[in-house]
Design a protein that fits this description.
Layout: E1 3-8, E2 11-16, H1 27-42, E3 48-53, H2 64-67, H3 76-95, E4 101-105, E5 108-110, H4 114-117, E6 122-126, E7 130-132, H5 148-152, H6 154-163, E8 167-168, H7 169-175, E9 180-182, H8 187-199, H9 203-219, H10 222-241, H11 247-259
Parallel strand pairs: 2-3, 3-4, 4-6, 5-7, 6-9
Antiparallel strand pairs: 1-2, 7-8
InterPro entries: ClpP/crotonase-like_dom_sf (IPR029045), Enoyl-CoA_hydra/iso (IPR001753)
Family: Belongs to the enoyl-CoA hydratase/isomerase family.
Pfam families: ECH_1
Length: 260
């Protein structure tokens, strides 16, 4: 199992369980993760969802080689279809689950890793957490789930996309992306404590409070922006396909080797 699920005391805990590859996301992990979110959403006894990860790192992003065709067989049509379903549709669905959610993030959270924690309503980060999106270094300017501008503000979003440098947990907290920064050995306990506080609240009130905030963001353009940037991202794939060997896969391999 790439994703573990447990529910107790009105809290569902969803755990990424590929620590041997820094919780890189293959097709099976994303499908299991979507099923876990749906299970928690449908369970009347669950009021709050906690997303966490086993191992040193929250997620090294997409494990493209696990499920992509060979570079010579990749087409833009194939990429668009695969990413639309597992990246864009899944992520927007998790964001709109009508129950509060909390991400507990440690270590590296890279590119597609942001796609897992940003849909959560709250983020508790360990002191060693580093958030990054080196997509421009791979020759692609857009992203599948563009939360960057909303999570960090326009100038900070441009900085991390232009440079690829990681944002520390403290920096993310100052930008408003992270709610709390805690010692690494207290991460799970702090996320659980926050979940327990929220679980005491009336479920309908929580649902409506979440809907109010998300709908406000949507009125401001969040949903339309995410959809449009997804298409910008696909033009980046189209450009990368024009380069022999599709270098994105090579770049990702190099990055993941450094995390082992």
């Amino acid at each position: 199992m790439h994703v573990l699920y447990e529910a107790a005391d009105r809290i569902a805990t969803i755990t990424l369980n590929r620590p041997e590859v820094a919780n890189a996301q293959n097709a099976a992990l994303l499908d299991e993760l979507d099923a876990a979110w749906t299970r928690a959403a449908d369970d009347a006894d669950v009021s709050v969802i906690v997303l966490r990860a086993e191992g040193r790192h929250f997620s090294a992003g997409h494990d493209l080689k696990d499920r992509w065709p060979s570079p010579d067989a990749i087409t833009l049509e194939w990429i668009y279809s695969a990413e639309s379903r597992r990246y864009l549709e899944y992520t927007l669905r998790w964001r709109n689950v009508p129950k509060p959610s909390i991400a507990a993030v440690q270590g590296r959270c890279i590119a597609g890793g942001l796609m897992l924690c940003w849909p959560c309503d709250l983020i508790v980060a360990a002191e060693d957490a580093l958030f990054s999106d080196p997509v421009a270094t791979m020759g692609i300017g857009g992203v599948e789930y563009h939360g960057h501008t909303w999570e960090l503000g326009a100038r900070k979003a441009k900085e991390i996309l232009f440079t690829g440098r990681p944002v520390t947990a403290e920096e993310a907290e100052r930008a408003g992306m992270v709610n709390r920064v805690v010692p690494r050995d207290r991460l799970d306990a702090e996320a659980r404590d926050l979940a327990e506080q929220i679980a005491k609240m009336p479920p309908f009130a929580l649902r409506q409070a979440k809907r109010a905030v998300n709908q406000t963001l949507d009125v401001q353009g969040f949903h339309a922006a995410v959809q449009s940037v997804f298409d910008i991202h696909q033009t980046g794939h189209g450009n990368a396909l024009s380069v022999s060997g599709y270098p994105i896969l090579v770049k990702l391999d190099e990055m993941k080797e450094k995390l082992k």
